[in-house]
Amino acid sequence: MKQKYFILWCLSLIVPTISMSQIPFGNLPFQIVNNGTLKIEQSTVVYFGNEYLNAGIHDNEGDLYLNSNFINDGTTSIPTSGTTFFTSAVNDTLTISGTAGSANFFNLEVNVTSSSKKGVSVADGFGLIVENGVNLVSGDLRLVGEAQLIQTHTTGTNLNTSSGGSLLRDQQGMSNTYGYNYWSSPVTNNLEAFTLSGGLFDGTDADINSFEPEQVGFNTGSPYNGIPAGVDVDGMVITPLEISDRWLYTYSPNTSGYSGWDKIDETSSINPGIGFTMKGTATTNPNQNYVFKGVPNDGEYTFSINSGESVLLGNPYPSALDAGKFIDDNPTIIDQIEFWVDGGSNSHYLANYLGGYAIWNKTAGVAPSVVISSIAGLGNADSVLAPTQYIPVGQGFFVEALNGGTITFNNSQRIFEKEDTGNSIFYKTSGTKSKTALEEEPKRFIRIGYEDPEMFHRQIVLGFLPNCPASLDFNLGYDAVMFDPREDELFYIIEHDLTRKYVIQGVGAYNSSYEFPIGIKISQEGTHTIMIDAVENFEDVIYIKDNVLNISYNLTESNFSPNLPPGEYLDRFSIVFSDITSKSTLDTEDVFADNNLRVHYLNNKIVINNNSNLELSDVSIFNTVGQKITEVNKNDIKQQKITIPFMYQQGMYVVKIESGQRNKTFKIIN
User: Fold this and answer.
1) End-to-end Cα separation, the chain, in angstroms
2) Is 330 in contact with 400 (CB distance < 8 Å)?
3) Three-state SS for 110?
4) How far apart are CA 458 and CA 504, in angstroms?
5) Most CB atoms within 10 A, among 68, 116, 136, 309?
6) Model confidence over 575-598: pLDDT tens digits?
7) Which helix (H) or strand (E) covers residue 137, if one does?
8) Which pLDDT tens digit goes with each residue over 14-26?
9) Into which CATH architecture does domain 597-669 fall?
10) Domain spans, the chain
11) CA distance linking residue 384 with residue 368, whole number of Å
12) For residue 253, what are the CA distances in angstroms to 303, 312, 359, 487, 574?
């Protein structure tokens, strides 16, 4: 087919709703404006010599050459052919921006050839959506701040090419020299792999030096600390930051490394989708900014794994990754994702590490067990630590295989979701996240907190999912196992499986009659406190039921601190939504249906009438937090009438009577 060519240089060309072949030529070049529908048909070549503002509908199926900036304040149709070329021999930097927040292209090419060329800068928070491939010929494609590149083609291979340009994309990590981040590169720079040398750059001055960051440096030897960048009075980097290569590792099953950890250095090749560890630089900024530079990753990446094995992977793309879609695409292999969160570590010694694994599955995200007060800038456990559905650029994470098979990343899992919306969070442990409703019919969540005597705060999540088939039994993808249990823990028990500690339990629509067993593991004396961290779309009262004492504690009203000796309590407590205590009469003449035993309080005494001379083996009295107040002498319990002096403060108490295999509890108020 014969191609049509059009060249536009004009002051202000207002384009009506017409096909491209009807656009007239203009004079006095300044800006081209489309207020109608701009249709570029297949086999049509168009050159725009000036800045182009789309305020209407932009529909490009041909080849469009842009010699200046592209501003999208309107709509861009999803194309099925054609290429948009950002090409200039005059302008050093072209920009892509606009109030629409995103723009669609089929193929995109960067070819800026001016003498002091930089390339194309994509505005902070802008989504560059390319249906096919990106070709970087001359000059770089700079994703500023939260800008992202999303590619949607379904073919398996990476369609991106480079003969002289790179993609540059920022991500922020920890400033703490003792704290780990788990990373994954969104680009390759060495034979379709990523190396830190040549691929990772100093982003300290990225806000004023977007296109020319300095290569990060590396150091070895004691004290094994990273070093921040040296900058001039304007904030430009004079000496680039240094990373201690002592803490660079990947993790894969069946390797010769320490417990699966494989030591790497700045020249090691890291394939797309593989995660790696790195510690901070001691910068005085809240976080350390880095720049990844190379060919953008795109298409399908696969990894073989055996049942029961764990592997450190990561988001391989320069866009957010939908964790729910990732799990759905690998349904028989993975059902949850674990993210390492540093808890304010202040030493390189392994025994002194503070931190834990946050977990996300299709029910919810849950925070790790950390000492909240040790992490600067954090509020409660729900403020920034719970992961969300969308995994940000550069974020590494662990998965454990349910079965052997192949784990797959693909373009359908990519999504344009910015971290500053609160729906995507990179674990650099600073700031707070907002909450945005993502469901038309909201889910209900209860976040239960537990603090041990050392003030480590564990959170467990209960989710009610109206449109989900999840039952009270184990549900693959909706119930998550605790990845890193401590010596003192709180957890859900599902299907009476006492070998697994669940940190997330997801069920269907809420029912007030449901009962959720929880386990408590206590290794040390001291205060162990259970509390409500947060509720979402939930208004009913939440109780902890003591199955031994047959009483309830109103957790909505106050925290619960059981006074229990060290041990595992796996069948004693449950989360319920009705007060079983209120179902009994609680006056001072409490009479029970069982005529063999009558218990009441009278004149500073608890009186037990054993009318049928039952053979009692033990009589104990507890307060409402499970602490044993007193017990009856073994000789006294043989009497038909047992009188127990009781001069304690007013309140409710529980009398537990044991007779052979039979236990019975009585509630009294003094």
Assistant:
1) 97
2) no
3) strand
4) 12
5) 136
6) 999 987 654 433 333 433 455 678
7) strand 134-138
8) 444 334 433 433 3
9) Sandwich (2.60)
10) 4-165, 171-421, 444-583, 597-669
11) 11
12) 11, 9, 20, 26, 37
